[in-house]
Design a protein that fits this description.
Enzyme class (chains A, B): transferase
Structural class of chain A: alpha/beta
Organism (chains A, B): Candidatus Daviesbacteria bacterium RIFCSPLOWO2_01_FULL_39_12
Number of helices of chain A: 16
Protein name (chains A, B): Queuine tRNA-ribosyltransferase
CATH topology of the largest domain in chain A: TIM Barrel
CATH architecture of the largest domain in chain A: Alpha-Beta Barrel
GO molecular function (chains A, B): metal ion binding; tRNA-guanosine(34) queuine transglycosylase activity
Helix content of chain A: 40-55%
Oligomer: homodimer
Radius of gyration of chain A: 20 Å
Distance between the termini of chain A: 43 Å
Keywords (chains A, B): Glycosyltransferase, Metal-binding, Queuosine biosynthesis, Transferase, tRNA processing, Zinc
Largest interface: A-B, 39 and 39 residues
């Protein structure tokens, strides 16, 4: 099982190392999402070159296609996708539930992009687990804590996550508490999971209860649930961090925009996973640093499809050392994007993942040099 | 202007060098197509690693988007697409005509894949040139020999092609002769073009006339026109090669399957361009060598989407040294293909372009060692 060590602290921010069977993850770090066993448009050697240290794969997608048993037969997910670094898997619960809950409550914003394509139909939640229909062929599927752990084991995951119930942001206190208690029972059945997931919605006492519960039962703390807004998110992080062991790694599930990285690392978060860099790339949204005009208002991005970049000789970001910025102009990227060329996706994703990977690296260095506040001020000033 | 030198001959097959301002092209060679200034799913460094020495870009597509004047302003196509090797451009005529002629005559097979997406509407052919409507915005466009040469110059092409009229395979002798004479007048107006294009349909005297005409007026011979079947194609090559200077390079436009490479090089062809490797990759059709089961019947391909590859641990081709074959199984490629992952396109295209590039390299070596017949027999036996 993975082992965590803190090397340096600066305020609540920490620099550490998470050792896994497939190598060391320096923290704070960002984990790009490879839903179906592939980080969109990037090969494993691209990931290495970019500096990515760990990828996340989705249990829900891989159990349905190509199937975790097949992947196991083929030597596990590392060999299947030819990635010899650490792999984190989620429990599958988020995918199965989020659509059911989200559709019911009309809170589509909850969903990651992958979920909007993959539409499982939630049939029933029981004490045992959850039954649903595959979005691929309508076949009846069941996911339980035990089965989720078995799938993650079959995949050969380095960082596994316990099976949890997902509360809706529209749930009241009683509903949220009920959901949390089910999560606790399911997490206890998720034997061998590295991360337990904290829940409790926006309710302080439930969040504290959940933090303590996960801290007591798991080596790693994963902060879960849907977050109404950034203020609530930061509040939840503060409640949680204050109630878990200092020496355990803290992973914030599904979050990872530029602003979040600074504000959450400052509050003691060590790890992030998020589809933002890959999804943004596909939509023409490319990260830029403050020196290139990036700020809170534009989410540190430009929209490359805009006509104003038609003749722009500059790289996406003048201060970026990624392959795309070292070799191509905004004009070329815009052309590829508008023309629908596949190479656009490769170059845009390369840039965005490099940008975020490199930013967390700079943040690590800043924490080590006790310069985190200075770096944050450089980026987050209005 | 490019210069051609023959290094070795074995029968009609030759090994040579085509020197351009952007480097030497060893012949025989295969030129992958980068229609819109990008070889589908491959970056320039991918192309270099694969061993590609020259790429072809389409005048028709680039004149319309992003525009040849813009590309000129941005430093030319080499800088725009960050490819410092040789670039060949076509004249734009094929694209403009082929749909007009092909639609009229119902010979859709003529069209390259790119044309089926990009649908110019042909309005009028006059002595001056051709007017058509852009497939992008319906705007009225005109292409003349002079304009085609200007566009190719603006792009910074190393190997330009004269503007020609395209005959239909359904044209009779008189119609074909009429078209050929228009081609001759247009080619004479295509000042500075490296390649003249031969036409004349399936008519021996017209093909000989065209071969002699192009030989007299251009440094390079490009064999053009639509080809009814392989037998006719080989016949046309024989008529043409017998009537052009030995020391001039011979480019067969738009052809490049495995079988063609052997049969056409054997008849004296030096260069090929074709969308087959990139298009096939996108459709799940991946090249395999005879040792992996490739033969004339399956066009030296397997269809990776077939369920029989679901658990196949082998690489696409056990004897291939491309990045895809060195790192991934058929099972993974099939998964990416079926799941619609962008990485599939990158890996599949890498393999197919490497496969063909490496095959022409082997053919070059075989000719140098007077072993061409032996290599051909290894591949083309039934």
């Amino acid at each position: 099982m993975a082992q965590f060590k803190i090397l340096h602290k600066s305020g609540k921010a920490r620099v550490g190392q998470l050792k896994t069977a497939h190598g060391v993850i320096e923290t704070p770090n960002f984990i790009p999402v490879g839903t179906q066993g592939s980080v969109k448009a990037l090969s494993p050697r691209d990931l290495r070159e970019i500096g990515v240290q760990v990828v996340l794969a989705n249990t829900y997608h891989l159990m349905l296609r190509p199937g975790d048993q097949l992947i196991k037969k083929l030597g596990g997910l590392h060999q299947f996708m030819s990635w010899d670094g650490p792999i984190m898997t989620d429990s599958g619960g988020f995918q199965v539930f989020s659509l059911g809950v989200a559709l019911e409550h009309g809170v589509g914003k909850l969903l990651r992009e992958e979920e909007t394509k993959a539409k499982p139909r939630l049939n029933k939640i029981t004490e045992e687990g959850v039954t649903f229909q595959s979005h691929l062929d309508g076949s009846k599927q069941i996911l339980t804590p035990e089965k989720s752990m078995q799938i993650q084991t079959n995949l050969g995951s380095d960082l596994t996550v316990a099976f949890d119930d997902l509360e809706s942001p529209k749930h009241n206190y009683e509903e949220t508490f009920k959901s949390l208690k089910l999560t606790e029972r399911w997490e206890l059945r998720s034997r061998g999971a590295f991360y337990g997931v904290t829940h409790g919605g926006i309710f302080k006492d439930l969040r504290i209860r959940s933090a303590k519960f996960v801290d007591q039962n798991f080596p790693g703390i994963a902060l879960g649930g849907a977050h109404k807004d950034k203020k609530t998110l930061y509040q939840v992080i503060e409640w949680t961090v204050a109630n878990v062991s200092e020496e355990k790694p803290r992973h914030l599930l599904g979050i990872g925009e530029v602003e979040d990285l600074f504000n959450c690392i400052e509050r003691g978060i060590d790890l992030f996973d998020c589809v933002a860099p890959t999804r943004r790339a596909r939509n023409g949204s490319l990260y830029i640093s403050p020196k290139s005009g990036g700020n809170l208002k534009n989410n540190f991005t430009l929209n490359i499809s805009k006509s104003k970049y038609k003749g722009d000789k500059n790289p996406i970001d003048n201060w970026c050392n990624c392959y795309a910025c070292q070799n191509f102009s905004r004009a070329y990227l815009r052309h590829l994007c508008v023309a629908g060329e596949i190479l656009y996706h490769h170059l845009a994703t390369t840039h965005n993942v490099y940008f975020i990977t490199n930013l967390v690296k700079k943040i690590r260095e800043a924490i080590l040099n006790n310069q985190f506040g200075k770096l944050k001020a450089l980026w987050l000033t209005d």
